Amino acid sequence: MIPLADRTIFDMEKRGDFPTRITLNSRNVAWDLAEVEAWIGAKKTSSERARRPFAA
């Protein structure tokens, strides 16, 4: 769903730039789908704002 390396996601989590993982057991983790979808939505919104030309 998110095409980023594990290390990149881990670093983003530490900075608070990605939803926090949920530990399922010693070898598996997951993320709350609603939080990830909200993160994607926020990225889309900021990306769309960055592409808009400035009003003259």
From TrEMBL:
Pfam families: Phage_AlpA (PF05930). It comes from Collimonas arenae. This is Transcriptional regulator in PFGI-1-like cluster.
